[in-house]
Design brief:
The complex is a heterodimer of chains A (196) and B (196). Chain A is mainly alpha-helical and 196 residues long. Chain A contains 5 helices and 3 strands; from the N terminus they run H-H-H-E-E-E-H-H. Chain A folds into 2 domains: 39 residues, no CATH class; 140 residues, no CATH class. Chain B is mostly helical. Classes of the chains: A mainly alpha (196), B mainly alpha (196).
């Protein structure tokens, strides 16, 4: 019986009952549960991620287009200097014909490059007139005529310029493709609207 | 007919064991449902959970921490449980999970230094009235952790062995063993001779 009282309070056990009565003072008295923080219940809906991705891509594309257009018009209006390398067979015979051309001189590196100011040239034209770009680690000094030992733009500078122009022309052509596509889509939309 | 009587007894005990197991399973299922409701933000369900497990949490903390601090720590335990309820994997093991939080909080209490105040005269008199109870509680606190908690649940909180098993997640056999060994040690501490 004693075992039963200790286990499930059936039967009698004076000793345990006495302990229980003494310890009754420490027993848990029912209290209200703690107040819950309200913010835990608020469930925030996650914003659609796809919309964000599309918006970000559109903004990035628009920024690239704006930058390209700005560069394009700067070159077209002739504000940027255009560097024209002189090929060996196209070298002018008469020095007077290139009187309006400004020549940069560096005493130690005699690689002649003419810089034509205010030249209304497009990128395509520059590409046509410029010397062919050799994709190698060798310097492009072979393609540049040494007109005078004093006239110079370093080979590294020349190479960097060629690379820059090539990159710009590639970017331009790619953007043109994109633009054509957009125009095509807009054209299609316009046709659909007119049909309606 | 002694054999038939024995058989009847065996069947009776077997049936009562089955009924107890079924009741325990139903209670565990009810606990899981309450946890699910609390997860969905049901404050009423949180109140039910608090009412169901507050005595157990109170007992665990009382077995370790000064009595004045127990009520506050019980509230802290339930708030912490509410905030971290999504980390509970096994919903039916909420009792064991709460017990673990309570033990951690009690350990944390001794890690953080808190300012103490001297007891007022009224409180001292009140404490003197419970001198016997305090002595018993001190003896229980000096027991090994396993027996200490089980005895507090049984003698202070007035829970039966089956209730202790259901709430703490221990097996009924373990609880029974802990109760008997704990009582034996407590008698030795208090100098009570076991009456046979």
């Amino acid at each position: 019986m004693k075992e039963d009282y200790l286990w499930d309070k059936t039967g009698e056990d004076a000793e345990i009952e006495q302990l229980e009565n003494a310890l009754m003072a420490f027993r848990y008295t029912e209290t209200a549960p703690p107040e819950l923080p309200q913010k835990v219940f608020t469930v925030e809906k996650a914003k659609p991620r796809k919309f964000f991705q599309f918006g970000f891509a559109f903004a990035a594309f628009a920024a690239v287009v704006v930058i390209f257009c700005a560069v394009w018009f700067q070159i077209g209006s002739g504000k940027l200097p255009v560097i024209e390398p002189v090929a060996e067979n196209n070298a002018p015979k008469n020095e007077d014909k290139v009187a309006d051309e400004k020549i940069i001189k560096t005493p130690d590196k005699p690689a002649p490059v003419k810089i034509v100011e205010n030249a209304p040239r497009s990128v395509a034209r520059i590409r046509r007139n410029s010397a062919p770009v050799v994709r190698s680690n060798k310097p492009v000094r072979q393609n540049i005529k040494v007109k005078e030992p004093a006239e110079t733009l370093t080979a590294e500078e020349k190479y960097a310029y060629d690379q820059l122009m090539l990159a710009l022309s590639i970017t331009g052509s790619k953007l043109k493709i994109v633009k054509d596509k957009i125009d095509g889509i807009e054209g299609q939309n316009a046709v659909v609207e007119t049909e309606r | 007919m002694p054999d038939s009587g024995m058989t009847r007894n065996i069947f009776f005990f077997a049936r009562s064991e089955t009924t107890a197991a079924e009741t325990a399973a139903q209670k565990v299922s009810a606990q899981a449902q309450i946890v699910e409701r609390v997860r969905q933000g049901d404050e009423e369900a949180f109140g039910e959970l608090y009412k169901m497990f507050a005595p157990m949490v109170h007992g665990i903390i009382l077995a370790r921490v000064p009595r004045d601090e127990v009520a506050d720590i019980v509230q802290e335990v339930f708030l912490s449980a509410f905030k971290n309820l999504n980390t509970l994997r096994e919903k039916s093991a909420v009792g064991a999970w709460l017990a673990m939080i309570a033990r951690n909080r009690a350990a944390e209490f001794y890690r953080t230094a808190r300012p103490t105040e001297e007891l007022s005269e009224d409180l001292r008199q009140k404490e003197n009235c419970n001198a016997e109870a305090r002595e018993i509680l001190t003896a229980i606190r000096s027991l090994p952790e396993t027996y200490r908690e089980t005895l507090v649940f049984r003698l202070v909180e007035g829970m039966t062995g089956q209730e202790i098993a259901e709430q703490t997640g221990l097996t009924p056999e373990s609880v029974r063993v802990n109760l008997h060994r704990g009582m034996k040690l407590l008698r030795e501490k208090l100098g009570i001779k076991e009456s046979k």
